[in-house]
Amino acid sequence: MKVFVDTNIFIDILLNREPFSTDAIRIYKLCEQGLVDGYIAPITVNNIYYICRKAKNLESIKAYLADISRFFTIAPMDNESIIKANTLQMNDYEDALQYAMAMQMTCEYLVTRNVKDFKHIQHLKVVTPEAFLKVL
Fold this sequence. Notes:
alpha/beta
């Protein structure tokens, strides 16, 4: 099963944001164990670094990013994904890009805590971490 994982899931883990981190860790472990094929956007790496750099040691952030790169496929953000994102009726451009990349990678699910931001999406199941874990 292919799943595209939104940035907020990784930040929940790194910053230990309860109660969200528990389900986020479970999803991460599924990808780590190869039970689920996890995909992320290239900008996710950058966002994790910049959002967490004031709360965490930079070396621990870099180690976390290195782990993510071992267990998740970084989807290409190319001309096709930008053109597709530009056609979407979404308020958040980053979310539009993530959706476009998820579609290119033929993901079945996009896991995010911001499901409402994807309310107009039809060709992909957009679910919370909790809902995704229930599917499994």
